[in-house]
């Protein structure tokens, strides 16, 4: 029997309590360990929850959880208290399970080191992809592979917003309001829509896929706040669907870790991932590409992932004392994070509909070694405040692969051309075949 205590009984914590109370007999039959839920700490027991936590489990002081458990489950969220709690638990010799991607992506190095020094384990399956067992898959099922890339849709809120914009032809603000009404977006949605949540998750996936820690500040992050419905529609005309992708790639001893709105071909499986669902592709040198799909958040799916870590750890405590197979930082050196990506680009310029415009733009692109794959010019007139009645149209250029630095250099010159109105729009393009 292994004793488990939970700190934080909110959305996820309540789901974990419910699962453990409902399925502990089943877990014992399947896994050969009995999980005993000892205490559940939360600040507020007056609040209504979708599941009534039995009175004898409820406490308000987290220290009661530390005292009564072999495994401490941190489900408070945020950084400061959660970090102190995890450190205290590790210092007292407890294994830890957490869903806190924010904390682990930014301060994980310190916490994982502390755990390793003490022969303890931090489980974080629930921190990426909610109910999708992606951490276990990358660490265990794909352990024989050198991972070349991990990428996908890691944030349900933004995927819901982009799905609604595409399917209902509504603008970003209207789709965001809808997401809030449905409970998919928080009152302050910035962690999701500005890309930080996906960035935290891809950072954790990179740590385990490439075996190296790096500073979270190195991750390139661009959210969907500025996405214009016009580009979603123009992309669709070109055969692409816009998604917020989190991408981590390893190449020549360097890694790229980035989050940004991305066009994927409409027949790519990622283009078919709608609403709040998540999907992650892992590309390994022997297995090739494998894809994982499911609910990336929510009380029950996330609880399912938390419990998988609890059972994993409980089995190790009972059956293989002191043996922890999953080393963090196994590469033994820091990999360089490369921000000069090599990608295809969609660029939209708002230009007057007259001869010579394309020639002047393509000349600059050529100066920066950027080759054009295709061009789309619509007769649809752009709406520019104060310029109504002028014939300004969107001109879209799709490039072959080019370096980010060259692309940015070219855009700096192009936006100063007298024929270009306002800021060009730049969206990266990922092809499944790459
Ligand atoms: N929700 C999801 O679908 C989901 C999915 C994947 C990962 N996660 C992660 O899971 C973690 C928990 O998320 P959540 O959605 O369950 O958050 P939540 O609903 O806000 O729950 C957190 C709970 O912790 C309580 N708490 C705060 N400080 C405490 C303290 N000092 N001692 C005891 N309890 C305390 C909060 O009480 P008050 O409300 O009174 O402050 C609240 O009941 C976060 O790291 C989140 O990123 C969530």
Question: What is the strand and helix layout of this fold?
Answer:
Layout: E1 2-7, H1 11-31, E2 35-41, E3 58-59, H2 62-68, E4 71-74, H3 80-91, E5 95-98, H4 101-117, E6 122-123, H5 134-141, E7 147-153, H6 156-168, H7 172-181, H8 190-193, H9 196-210, E8 220-221, H10 229-237, E9 240-251, E10 254-265, E11 277-284, E12 288-295, H11 299-319, E13 336-337, E14 342-352, H12 357-367, E15 372-377, E16 392-399, E17 402-403, H13 404-414, E18 421-429
Helix pairs in contact: 1-11, 3-4, 4-9, 6-7, 12-13
Task: List the main descriptive attributes of the protein structure presented here.
434 residues, alpha/beta, Rossmann fold, Dihydrodipicolinate Reductase, domain 2, Alpha-Beta Plaits, 3 domains, twelve-stranded mixed sheet, six-stranded parallel sheet, 13 helices, elongated, binds NADP nicotinamide-adenine-dinucleotide phosphate
Question: Can you walk me through this structure?
Answer:
By secondary structure, the chain is of the alpha/beta class. It has 3 domains: 2-131 and 299-319, 3-Layer(aba) Sandwich (Rossmann fold); 141-294, Dihydrodipicolinate Reductase, domain 2 (2-Layer Sandwich); 343-429, 2-Layer Sandwich (Alpha-Beta Plaits), CATH 3.30.70.260. 37% of the residues lie in helices and 26% in strands. The chain contains 13 helices and 18 strands. The protein has helices at 11-31, 62-68, 80-91, 101-117, 134-141, 156-168, 172-181, 190-193, 196-210, 229-237, 299-319, 357-367, 404-414, and strands spanning 2-7, 35-41, 58-59, 71-74, 95-98, 122-123, 147-153, 220-221, 240-251, 254-265, 277-284, 288-295, 336-337, 342-352, 372-377, 392-399, 402-403, 421-429. Strands 7, 8, 9, 10, 11, 12, 13, 14, 15, 16, 17 and 18 form a 12-stranded mixed beta sheet that branches. A 6-stranded parallel beta sheet has the order 3-2-1-4-5-6, with helices on both faces. β1 (2-7), α1 and β2 (35-41) form a beta-alpha-beta unit. α6 crosses α7 (172-181) and α12 packs antiparallel against α13 (404-414). The longest helix is centred in the first third of the chain and has 21 residues, at 11-31. The chain is elongated, with a radius of gyration of 24 Å. The mean pLDDT is 94. The structure holds NADP nicotinamide-adenine-dinucleotide phosphate.
């Amino acid at each position: 029997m292994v004793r488990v205590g939970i700190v934080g009984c909110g959305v996820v914590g309540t789901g974990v309590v419910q699962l453990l109370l409902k399925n502990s007999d089943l877990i014992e039959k399947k896994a050969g360990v009995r999980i005993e839920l000892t205490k559940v700490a939360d600040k507020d027991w007056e609040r209504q929850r979708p599941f009534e936590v039995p009175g004898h489990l409820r406490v308000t002081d987290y220290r009661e959880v530390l005292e009564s458990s072999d495994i401490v489950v941190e489900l408070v969220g945020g950084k400061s208290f959660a970090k102190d709690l995890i450190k205290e638990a590790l210092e007292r010799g407890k294994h830890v399970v957490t869903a806190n991607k924010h904390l682990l992506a930014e301060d994980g190095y310190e916490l994982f080191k502390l755990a390793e020094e003490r022969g303890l384990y931090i489980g974080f399956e629930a921190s990426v992809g909610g109910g999708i067992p992606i951490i276990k898959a990358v660490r265990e099922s794909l352990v024989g592979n050198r991972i070349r890339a991990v990428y996908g849709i890691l944030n349900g809120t933004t995927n819901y917003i982009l799905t609604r914009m595409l399917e209902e032809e509504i603008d970003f603000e209207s789709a965001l309001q809808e997401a809030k009404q449905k409970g998919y977006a928080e009152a302050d949605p910035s962690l999701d829509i500005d890309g930080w949540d996906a960035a935290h998750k891809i950072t954790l996936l990179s740590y385990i896929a490439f075996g190296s820690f790096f500073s979270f500040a190195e991750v390139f992050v661009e959210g969907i706040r500025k996405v214009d419905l016009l580009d979603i529609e123009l992309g669709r005309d070109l055969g692409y669907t816009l998604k917020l992708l989190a991408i981590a790639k390893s190449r020549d001893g360097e890694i790229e870790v980035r989050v940004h709105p991305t066009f994927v071909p409409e027949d790519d499986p990622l283009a078919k991932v709608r609403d709040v669902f998540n999907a992650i592709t892992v590309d390994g040198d022997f297995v090739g590409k494998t894809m994982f799909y499911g609910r990336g958040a929510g009380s029950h799916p996330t609880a399912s992932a938390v419990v998988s870590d609890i059972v994993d750890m409980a089995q190790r405590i009972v059956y293989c004392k002191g043996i922890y197979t999953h080393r963090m930082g196994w590469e033994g050196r820091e990999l360089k994070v490369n921000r000069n990506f090599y990608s295809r680009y969609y660029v939209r310029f708002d230009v007057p509909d007259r001869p010579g415009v394309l020639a002047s733009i393509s000349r600059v692109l050529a100066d920066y070694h950027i080759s054009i794959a295709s061009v789309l010019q619509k007769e649809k007139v752009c709406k520019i405040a104060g310029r109504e009645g002028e014939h300004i149209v969107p001109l879209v250029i799709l490039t072959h692969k080019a370096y980010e630095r060259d692309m940015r250099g070219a855009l700096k010159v192009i936006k100063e051309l007298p024929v270009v109105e306002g800021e060009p729009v730049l969206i990266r393009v990922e092809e499944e075949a790459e």
